[in-house]
């Protein structure tokens, strides 16, 4: 019995160590023009994210249509979660962030919602009437079935429930010319116990020291 407990303890430690390494992988790009540009920026819009959900082993009864619907739903969810996070800490930033409902309505009226990859960032900023736009992409590859992830979480006390891996890209583009001012890239896990709000919270906490608009 002692050997079993020791093995489980070692597995938990290994999982935590691996997660720490995995969660620590990040890259940040900062344009030489960033500091001057943000001095005159007042309003920033958060665009709907691009989301790609794939599977290492395609599940039974896979539906491409349902998968696309899930991607679109998650795209709006990440956008909303990021806006909520920034709104909660509004006093910490030098700019205000446009309400995402207004952003999406303006994009829809202009006929570009769902076609953001066909529109330049300066064109989007003009449509939205903002000084800069925050965009991003989240890609995840599911590596376990949900049932398998739940079983792991129960066995390892919540530490082994990782059901996939993901990469998050976050960008800030200048509104006047569309130039890339800042880019953040991070690898992260995708845990069944984590909501989109939790995922965005973890990501924003990681980049809070480097976020350009922090006062």
Automatic annotation (TrEMBL):
Domain of life: Bacteria
Signal peptide: 1-20
UniProt entry tagged with the keyword Signal: yes
Keywords tagged on the record: Signal
Full protein name: DUF4410 domain-containing protein
Gene source species: Pedobacter miscanthi
Organism placement in taxonomy: Bacteria, Pseudomonadati, Bacteroidota, Sphingobacteriia, Sphingobacteriales
